[in-house]
Here is the input.
Amino acid sequence: MVNLALAIAPHVEETVYVMSNPSLTSTPEVVKNARPATWEGLQACRELTTLGINTLATTLFTMEQAILAGECGCMYVSPFVHELKAVFDESYDDGGANLALCVEAQRYYEHYAYSTRVKAAALLSVTEAKELAGVSSVTIAPDLLRTLASTEATGEDVDKLSLFTQAKQSKQHIPVRRTYLDEETSWREAFSKANDGKRLRNTKDVQSLL
Here is the structure.
């Protein structure tokens, strides 16, 4: 994966991220580190940040993860709009897109002046892409990217669908700022209870698939 990232890097103006095992390879400066948004993964991001290494927190499904990632200094978080299984298995119904998390996390970061940015992932449709218009960045699968490229839509049409525009116009509530940085027990408890434990299972499922 590191070699692939190195091959891509000369053709990309922004940062290239790669998931890698630091015990098996030396990660070049151009390649930044992605870590799962578990307690251990985010504490690793915290340490890497102090060393001047930019990080991306992935497998993110909850605001608890987003808040801690911001406190740990992650450059990006990657909220999964859908469970990873839904991306690879068209017959699987995960209960619907978790688009609101992307909006809530980004507005939280902006309101409380965190430098962390949202990089949405696991989108399944053109409509979801339009609804996320306004997100800092997005990971899009090749098939969906080709469909988007052939889809005609005016800026006004997209703006009407954008959840970010709707949140701003309605002055949607922003959660009270809180800290989890050195509160492992309270973070684990809150994370494990999110959506009746479903989000913890989602994170574990992605880790097992990756």
